[in-house]
Each structure stands twice: as structure tokens, then as C-alpha cells.
Amino acid sequence: MAKIADPKLAAQGRLKIEWAESRMPVLMELKKRYETSKPLAGLTIAGCLHVTKETAVLIRALKAAGANPVWSGCNPLSTQDDVAAALAEEGIDVYAWRGISKEDYYWCIEQCIKASPHITIDDGADLVFVAHQKYPEVLKGIIGGCEETTTGINRIRAMAAAGQLKYPIMAVSDAETKWDFDNVYGTGESTLDGIKRATNVMLAGKTLVVAGYGHCGKGVAMRAKGMGCDIIVTEIDSINALRARMEGFKVMPMSEAAKLGDIFVTTTGCNNIITEKHFELMKNGAILANSGHFNLEIDAAALEKIAKSKKEIRDNNVEYILPNGNKIYLLAEGRLVNLAAAEGHPSEVMDMSFANQFMAVLHLAKNKGQIKPDVHNLPKAQDQEIASIKLATMGITIDSLTDEQKKYLAGFEEGT
Ligand code: NAD
Ligand code: 9W1
After folding, report:
1. How many Å apart are CA 12 and CA 83, to the nearest integer?
2. Which CATH number, 2.60.40.10, 3.30.990.10, 3.40.50.720, 1.20.58.2050, labels domain 185-340?
3. Cα 257 to averaged position of ligand 2 atoms, centre (Å)
4. What whole-number percentage of the chain has pLDDT above 70?
5. This prediction's pTM
6. Cα(339) to centroid of ligand 2, in Å?
7. Within the chain, which residue ranges are assigned CATH 3.40.50.720?
8. 7-180+345-393: CATH topology
């Protein structure tokens, strides 16, 4: 029995899911490939993963391949209630609503565990963790699980190191067609989307400061450059700083960049990147957004403390007036701007992440009982296959090695 916010939202949710389906060709191809043979028939799959339009496409694909999916959210704020309603109407046991309390959040996860799943899917390892803690009898029936994020995998590795992990986990997070595309292209584009939605600011002609030139920072910088921004990068790592410079970006300490930026985006995963001493150096009208650590990169408390006044200008956009008279705009209270002010990663990127989930589930089902309870990487060929399906759906073909080329690459006879 599903438990959701409001069944009347189903029609709107269906439209959202259909839209996502039209943007997720790899998952749709996999769905088509397995809907007749139904390799997941008889398997209950418990998911604890953001209830979004993209996740709904994964759920539908699993169901089409014969599985019985039961689902809870993995974050109290990410559930799209209309999507949850549409899934419930399709007969899927969804336990999720937006703004859920901590107590209800765990109740929802436990409903999924009580369905005695054969396979689990997590984003953050909450379901794996609760199942191990409170439902030892259910663990015996579980073939394996899949984990979406690095944070979740770290948690599961710790369980394995303590000798407590009772079933194998596939690290979807480590697939190249997952993390590289999610972090670089997903975060890059959705971060700019969040900034645009919260401000409607024109990017062309602005100076945009990116703190941290890792995967997320690289994506943000690359896309902002394309929109006509001048980019300044701040770093603590010499190699990544050099990469940014070779890409044509200016590199300097935050204490210098603070004076020059029109828009600031933090993507470091570290705390205290933009602090009180920086606010005082900034130009009037500076816009601050975070896309890295969920709320520690911009010292919002310090801004709150030193400001003479503040007012909400529009959704996810608060204006602070500093003692020097300058106005500073903080987006989404310094939380992840691409999630709070936009809609997370675009469907096209989630397509590959969730195709990895789908194939990882197939892998577990096929190798039932043969994988030891530990963290495992997905087969390398799966990454290639997902990229190759994605290319095909984009109408792109590529070359393949000829026999002479293979021989040449494998040989050592030929010198200089
Ligand atoms: P990464 O390790 O590839 O990059 C982080 C970069 O920041 C590194 O180059 C590092 O040298 C630099 N850095 C660290 N401390 C710094 C400091 N004090 N000043 C300047 N630079 C500093 O990591 P990533 O994959 O790019 O992830 C970065 C953060 O973004 C993490 O917190 C991650 O959880 C988060 N993230 C957010 C989303 C999203 O949807 N918004 C998606 C993926 C990851
Ligand atoms: N995951 N479908 C918010 C997303 C919260 C969120 C979070 C995504 C997707 C990073 C997963 C307000 C979707 C998710 C929409 C939304 C994530 C946290 C997705 C990006 C990661 C903590 N982490 N993600 N789409 N909220 O985009 O499943 O709109």
C-alpha cells in the first residue's frame, strides 16, 4: 500500500515522467530490450532513491523487466509529490512525500524492507544500513544491492571493513558513465540553471568566480564561459590550478577574486570558502551561490551577523545590505543551488546514471549467490555499452579498430 502526499497530483506527475522518458533514451532502450524476456520476474526491488521524474523512468523500466519495485525517498526535500502520485496510481508501492519528518522518513524505508526485497537500490545507504540494523531475517533473502553515491559507498565500505556487510553491493557511483557525467555536465549545467532561476541575471559579460576546479568546478566554469562569462578560478591544489590556467581561466586567491567577481560559485567540498573578510571586499550587487558541500562553503551565518538588513527579493534570493552600504545576494541560503533553485541534474545525465543502476540490477540477478558480500565495481564492459547506446541514440557512430590496428597496438616489434 503506497503512502504519498496527494493522489490528485497523478496527472501532472504522469506528464513529468513522460517528459523525462523522452529525454532518457538509454533507459528506454534497456526497457524495450528486456520487457519480453522479463529477466527480473519474481524479484522484489526495494529502492531508497530520490522520488523524481527520472527515478520514475528507472522504476518503470525495472517493472517492465518483470520486477516488483517498492520505493521510498532518500532525502526529505527531493520528493516530487506529483511523480509519487503517478507511480502510486500505476500500482507501485511508493512511500514518500516532500517535507517528510525524520520519523516518517525511516518508517517509509522500513515499509520497503518489510516487503522482503531480493535486491536493494540506495542513494546514501540508508536502506542497506537500516536493513542490517533492524531486519536480520530479511537480509538472508537479499541477493545484492546497488549504491548510487560515493558517500553511500564509503559508508558501506566501512560496514564491510567491520565485517558487518551481509550481501554484495555494486558501486554504481564508480562507473565512469555515472560520476564523470553527473558531476561535470550535470552539476555544471544545473548550477547555472539554478542561478538563472533565482536571479534571471544575464551571464554574458559578467565575471564569474568558481571556487574549486574539480569535477563540479570544471563543469560550471566550462558552461559559464560558453555563456559569455569571464572566469576566475580559486584553488588550493597546484595541479588543478594549473589545469584551470591552461584552459584559459584566471587563477588567484579568493582574497583577490572577491574584489572582482559579479557571481561566485563554490564547488570545493570544503568549509569556509567565502567568509566575512571576503564579503567586505565584494562589489555592490555580488551574487553568491554554492554547489559543493551542502551548506558549509559560504559562511551564511557571518553574512547574517554583519548585515545591517536583509530581505527576500524573490524565491531563493536574499539581499543583504552590509555596513559599507553594498548589497550582496545569497542564493538558496548557501545550500546546493542546483537542487534548491533548479531541478537537480537534467534527465539526459540521469539517463546514464540510472542505466548503470538497471544493468547493475541485471548483473546481480544473473549472478545470484556467486558474488561475495563486499563492494564491487560494475563490469568495465557495461560502461562502454552504456556510452555506446547513448551515442547510438544521439545518431552518432564511431570508428572501430581494424585487425592491423589491433596488432599494431598489441605489438612491440615496431621501433622509432
Ligand atoms: P573534487 O575533489 O573533484 O573537486 C574539489 C576541488 O576543490 C579540488 O580541486 C580541490 O583542490 C578544491 N578545493 C578544496 N578545498 C578548497 C579550498 N579551500 N579552496 C579552493 N579550492 C579547494 O570534487 P567534486 O566531485 O567536484 O565535488 C565537489 C563538491 O561538490 C563535493 O562537496 C560534492 O559532494 C559536491 N557535489 C555536488 C553536486 C550537486 O549536485 N550540486 C553533485 C556532485 C558533487
Ligand atoms: N536524483 N533524480 C532535488 C539530489 C538532493 C533533488 C537532491 C536526481 C534526479 C544530485 C541526485 C528540487 C532531484 C533531486 C530534483 C530536485 C541529489 C541531494 C538528481 C542531483 C543528487 C542531497 N542529492 N541528483 N534528478 N535533490 O538530480 O534522482 O529538485
Report:
1. 8
2. 3.40.50.720
3. 30
4. 100
5. 0.95
6. 6
7. 185-340
8. Rossmann fold (3.40.50)
